[in-house]
């Protein structure tokens, strides 16, 4: 169900990236003084007690989520070796009664499939490029039902970036945190963490960046 929303969440981010970032680009270096643990397609961390916890892995064939829930075999397009919203339990979050997306699910799925057919078939049978095209159509400003798509996109975004299905998540338990190099909960802090630059303590003229 929310596999579509997981791809939809990437569409606006991709468009924003193409516009360019006026700030300093990220050079890819880890902001931690740590040893990178390469576990390939598994989860057998050589040093699970490491602090900070830095991992590199290949999740193109992942079949269970962070919480151990089964992943539909067609859910992940497999174009990236790192995990995404599917593995971060976006589907579980979407069915949380506190979210309320179950009410929007029928009209969302109906439009998702109707827009998928001209691209070759049911959404889950499409490759990544065609899935992205469907989501771009749904999120287009000209689409009068865009709000449903935006609601769907917000769920996987939150599941991935905020580990919303976990309590006191860390990089060891939340795949989104590992991808973002975010350590997660740290009751005693992270002594070895550094942004390697002086942080800005100034204030904007109007209180916001725009």
For this entry, give a set of tags.
globular; 210 residues; two-stranded parallel ribbon; 31% helix; mainly alpha; 6 helices
What's the topology here?
Blueprint: H1 3-18, E1 37-40, E2 55-57, H2 90-94, H3 105-116, H4 128-138, H5 146-161, H6 175-179
Parallel strand pairs: 1-2
Please state how the strands of the largest beta sheet are arranged side by side: 1-2
Enumerate how many helices there are, as a single number.
6
Most strands sheet:
2 strands, parallel
Our Rg estimate from Cα atoms comes to 19 Å
- What structural class do you assign from the helix and strand content? mainly alpha
- The helix/strand order is HEEHHHHH
Question: What this model shows, in words?
Answer:
The protein is mainly alpha-helical. 31% of the residues lie in helices and 3% in strands. The chain has helices spanning 3-18, 90-94, 105-116, 128-138, 146-161, 175-179, and strands at residues 37-40, 55-57. A two-stranded parallel sheet has the order 1-2. It starts with a helix and ends in a 31-residue tail after the last helix.
């Amino acid at each position: 169900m929310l596999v579509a929303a997981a791809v939809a969440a990437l569409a606006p981010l991709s468009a924003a990236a193409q516009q360019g970032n006026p700030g300093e680009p990220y050079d890819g270096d880890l902001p931690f003084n740590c040893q990178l643990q390469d576990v390939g397609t598994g989860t057998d961390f050589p040093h699970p007690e490491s602090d900070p916890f830095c991992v590199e892995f290949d999740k193109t064939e992942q079949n269970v989520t962070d919480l151990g829930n089964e992943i539909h075999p067609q859910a992940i397009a497999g174009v990236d070796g790192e995990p995404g919203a599917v593995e971060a339990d976006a589907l579980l979050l979407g069915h949380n009664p506190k979210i309320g997306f179950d009410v929007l699910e029928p009209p969302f799925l109906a439009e998702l499939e109707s827009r998928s057919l001209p691209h070759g078939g049911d959404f889950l049978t499409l490759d990544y490029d065609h899935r992205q095209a469907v989501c771009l159509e749904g999120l287009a400003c000209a689409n009068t039902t865009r709000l449903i798509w935006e609601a769907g996109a917000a769920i996987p975004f939150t599941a991935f970036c905020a580990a919303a299905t976990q309590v006191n998540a860390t990089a060891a338990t939340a795949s989104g945190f590992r991808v973002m190099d975010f350590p997660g909960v740290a009751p005693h802090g992270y002594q070895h963490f550094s942004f390697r630059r002086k942080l800005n303590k100034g204030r904007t003229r109007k209180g916001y960046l725009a």
